[in-house]
Amino acid sequence: MFVKLLNKISPYISGVNALELIKHINDLDRWSSFDKHHETALYCIDTMKGYGLETEMFQLPADGEKTYGDWVMPRAWDAWSARLTLLPKDGRREVILCDYKVNPCSLVVYSKPTPPGGVTAEVVVVEGGSKPGDYDGLDVEGKVVFTSDSARSSRIEATRHGAVGIISDHLPVIEYYRPPMELPDCYFWDRFSTDTHGGWGMKKGDIECWGFVLTPRQGHWLRELIRKEKTVKVHAEVNSRFYDGTVDVVTGYIPGETDEEVLINGHLYEVGAIDNASGCGVAIEVLRCLNELIERGELKRPKRGIRMLFTYECMGTMGAVIERPDIFNRVVAAITLDSVGGDESLCKAFLSLSHNPHAQSSYTDTLLRLIMEHMTHREKFLVNWRERPFLNADNIISDPTIGIPSPLLLEYPYRYYHTCMDTPDKLNPDKLSWIGVVAATYVYFIANAGEAECKWLIEEVLSEAKKAMIDAVKEYVKVYYESGGRRSEELWKRLNYLGIRYDNALESILRLASSDDHDTRRRLNHAKRELIEFAEASYRRFCHITGTTAEKPKPKMSRYKLEASKVVPKRLIIGVSKRTRIPADKREEWSEKLKEWNIDADVEFSAQMWCDGKRSVAEIEELVECETGKTGIKLLEYFREMEKYGYFECSVKD
Asked: Cα–Cα distance between 329 and 431 in angstroms, integer?
């Protein structure tokens, strides 16, 4: 259905041009300063105008106060210069350890300015730095702490104990991707972050600090020097400022025949060429290519417009959703591009297709997978890619409270993630082209989809659903004969869950159907009935193979489950809760409660996604257990506790 379209687009997507765009964006964003971010936004706008695209740039507040959903916008921050110098001693010369103008990653983002003339202070080594006990027996009042933890995680305790600044040689280990001392001369991109959740900037009222980052090799050398000399001093100068500013939202647009739109989104304003200049560069190249083909008459103008929108990660995206409903209410589907095109031989990372949350299951996951599978068989250049469950990025728009299905393409983690070595030379133009063809085919196919495309998508989603059910039966038959560890009711629960999930995916296709397309609606309803019948037949097949009773199980409900079945929670905010409203002195207690209820980050996220104001807590628990594979989850007290902070409203069924 999409092959002719893909073949037409393929010769015109240029990975080389995408790389040039990425280089320009990265050259500005690597400074992590809001004045440079504004230059990035202007560059993107001017470039898209040069390609004949319609453009718009609008602003969101960056004041450390404005909250969108549960995301809090950061305070704006500019930096112009910063230097950390090890002062001479006993004939040893001074050594410049860090210079922002030479390597901007050597300065911790959101560092406060030093007084004019800088600060001179003794350095005290702290093993760790993020926990109160790390400072036992140490006097850091008026001194600079040298931590092995990140500056971000050490800020609160360091300042609480009187430190004037922080030095960190922390470079996170990422399993296979970045083992210890893999990059001895690499600076970690570190950012001070708010005392509360809700983002990774600084809010008004947060205790400010300045900090510098050393490479692992520098850190080892400085530790040895302090061990030998006992006392060393540094001089720090930071020329920066906090202020009430703005975050730019950049958008480019190809008009369609109707007001509906398809979106490519992601984020600007991070240090790396891969994370995330790559997604922006590919998106601009996709729009350039499609617009050129449309203007030349090689592709007809699609039914729906095609838009690119990029801003500050997550916080800015949520702000754009809330401030500009005139844009997002028109979007029928999206794709999020985040960290793509890295040379796998250098970065060690494969490309992931991250699905929508199951509560927002959509044909878009199926469509994107099929396009990528075709590219794998078609192209001589091979891309190592895999499917994975939902991973949170700017695809937060796929939250059911927003309702825009948005599969995500990304490479994470990778060797150079969040470091100064995330540079354009780590990208592969052929891979950028491959991803660009995939994204362009995906957005144009949806933009121009009509009755024929809807019917084809129905068959593909139904086929995928049946395969998932067949695989479930195979799995349970195998376990039954190997260990007898799974009973028929567990399979029935699984099949029922798959029915719910793929019913949602089938229903999502209606967003593409016109109001008078009765034939598509009839086929969709038939497919839904077929899905139910296939689930029942799959269950009977399992029972026949294993010789178990083919009756649908009727599990007994415990006293807790009976109570949970009567409580219906409803979300009161747009998007997922970040727990910003939970006071700092309650967070440790809250963490212990989550452990008691068997709730980790995946469970909490899934629970919020399935919470639609109609399902009971017991129903949500069952859906979450099926999605996450985790058992023993108790959400009743979780929802009641979160209700106290205004995140949910719990009603009781009669």
From this structure: 33
Predicted TM-score (pTM) of the model is 0.96
Beta bridge partners of 387: 353
Helix axes 636-644, 587-596, angle to 10 degrees: 160
How far from the centroid of its chain's Cα atoms is residue 98's Cα?
31
Which phi and psi (to 5°) does residue 23 adopt?
Answer: -60, -45
Residue 253 carries which DSSP code? Answer: E
Closest of 13, 597, 570, 590 to residue 281, by C-alpha? 13
Torsions phi, psi for 125 (to 5 deg): -80, 130
Percent of all residues in the chain with a pLDDT value above 90, rounded to a whole number: 93
Backbone angles phi, psi at 538, to 5 degrees: -65, -40
The pLDDT value recorded for residue 199 is 86
Rounded CA separation 26/277 (Å): 6
The secondary structure of residue 188, as a DSSP letter, is: B
What is the distance between the alpha carbons of residues 180 and 201, in angstroms, rounded to a whole number?
28
Nearest to 69 by CA among 573, 596, 631, 621: 573
Residue 476's Cβ-count burial label (10 Å; 0-12, 13-18, 19+) is buried
Asked if residue 381 lies in contact with residue 527, where contact means CB atoms within 8 angstroms, the answer is no
Supply the DSSP string of 25-93, one letter for each residue.
Answer: HHHHHTT--HHHHHHHHHHHHHHHHHTT-EEEEEEEEEBS--EETTEEPPBEEEEEEEEEEEPPBTTBP
**Share above pLDDT 70 across residues of the chain, in percent, rounded to a whole number:** 100
- How far apart CA 257 and CA 389 sit, in angstroms, is 34
Q: What's the full length of the chain, in residues?
A: 654
How far apart CA 479 and CA 481 sit, in angstroms, is 5
Cα-to-chain-centroid distance, residue 11? 30
**Which helix (H) or strand (E) is 527 found in, with range?**
helix 518-546
User: Cα–Cα distance between 577 and 647 in angstroms, integer?
Assistant: 7
> What does the alpha-carbon distance between residue 48 and residue 42 come to, in Å, rounded to a whole number?
10
- CA 150/CA 171 separation, integer angstroms: 8
Question: What are the tokens at 166?
Answer: 């922080």
